[in-house]
Write a structure and sequence with these properties.
The protein is α/β, with parallel strands linked by helices. The chain contains 13 helices and 10 strands. It has a 6-stranded mixed beta sheet, with helices on both faces. It has a two-stranded antiparallel sheet with strand order 7-8. Strands 9-10 form a two-stranded parallel sheet. Helix 2 runs parallel beside helix 6 and helix 6 packs antiparallel against helix 9.
């Protein structure tokens, strides 16, 4: 199948997206009426969707069952839960539809709409089929599927090479890191694409009580907003200073890339605590797989002190993404690492 065919065949693209851009089935939020719910649920499950929440517009709030949402908690659920796509299937337009689509797009979600006669004027759109249902799909941006598949292939090759280097470096680093009695590898839950939680790996560069001491150091945070960064962080071990400066602490993340949790290039995944403070516009930076490196890392990250600026760079990367842009960032990252401009 040619690259042009890949980009023009939406049903085939949907199947590939489930494996190339997510781990397992895609998570979908359904908005419809009760008499249509069971038909839609069965159709979606047949094509590799997981129904993560539903809002039945005619369901009385006092009779809500598990997994059912109301008008009051719909957008909060979309912000905090794992939602890749939204399907709005209604026999006629309701006044809130346009504001719903705007809110979901702000969070970086793809929205499928099946409402007779309805048109959303502000967004990019495509006429496609989801689970056999003709829909109009709105999204902040549409990426070429041929490029997404190539991105995954580059990730796999790069991860295999990176893991080989990680193993060689680990023969020296691992015993040095373990001198204080702690593990050589640091593992932490992070928030990935569209809210997925995954185990994130690094060579440990901090003392074992780093997370507990973080609360005491918040007054020294040099970042404004939803991220912590501190100059001369006292939680960093002596060997940690070296591996951070050389970015060697990031090497175990090639395992995350091979697993599909991360990409070589993307946005940096937040901690679960950082994610709890996210506003809707912040979640859009999670609409792409997180990466080992990214536009922020090669754009003078040491000088960026406002989280909103980080979000702006991440959204710019996602909006304008091409495989060529990834290659440029990888080359710039190599330059940053060689000249020792690693994380502080």
């Amino acid at each position: 199948m040619s690259a042009d065919k890949l980009d023009q065949d939406p049903d085939w693209l949907s199947a590939v997206l489930a494996t190339s851009e997510t781990i397992g089935p895609k998570s979908i939020l359904l908005m419809t009426y009760s008499d249509r719910f069971e038909m839609l649920r069965q159709a979606l499950e047949k094509v590799n969707y997981t129904l993560n929440g539903c809002y039945l517009l005619d369901q009385p709030q006092e009779n809500l069952e598990e997994g059912q949402l109301s008008a009051t908690n719909l957008l909060e659920f979309a912000l905090r839960a794992t939602v890749d796509e939204v399907l709005i299937y209604l026999p006629e337009e309701v006044p809130e539809v346009t504001s719903w689509i705007q809110a979901f797009e702000t969070m970086g979600m793809t929205v499928h709409v099946a409402i007779p006669g309805y048109t959303y004027l502000d967004g990019l759109k495509r006429e496609v089929s989801v689970a056999g249902i003709p829909v109009t799909t709105y999204a902040p941006t549409f990426h070429k599927m041929s490029h997404l598949i190539l991105k995954r292939l580059i990730d796999i090759v790069g991860a295999l090479v990176g893991l080989f280097i990680c193993g060689l470096v680990g023969l020296v680093l691992y015993p040095l890191i373990r001198r204080d009695g702690g593990p050589g590898i640091f593992a932490q839950d992070r928030v990935g694409r569209n809210g997925r939680i995954f185990k994130f790996y690094k060579y440990r560069s901090m003392y074992m009580d780093a997370e507990e001491r973080k609360k005491e150091l918040m007054a020294h945070n040099t970042m404004e907003g939803g991220m912590f960064k501190m100059d001369n962080d006292p939680r960093i071990t002596p060997i940690g200073q070296f591996i951070r400066k050389t970015s060697l602490d990031e090497l175990p993340q090639f395992y995350n890339v091979l697993r599909g949790d991360m990409s070589l290039v993307g946005t940096r995944p937040p901690t679960k605590q950082e994610f709890l403070d996210y506003k809707p516009a912040h979640k859009r930076r999670l609409s792409f797989k997180p990466g080992i490196t990214g536009l922020w890392q090669v754009s003078g990250r040491s000088e960026i002190t406002n989280f909103e600026d980080v979000v702006a760079l991440d959204v710019e990367y996602i909006q304008d993404w091409t495989i060529l842009e990834d290659i440029k960032i990888l080359l710039k990252t190599f330059k940053v690492v060689v000249f020792g401009d690693g994380a502080k």
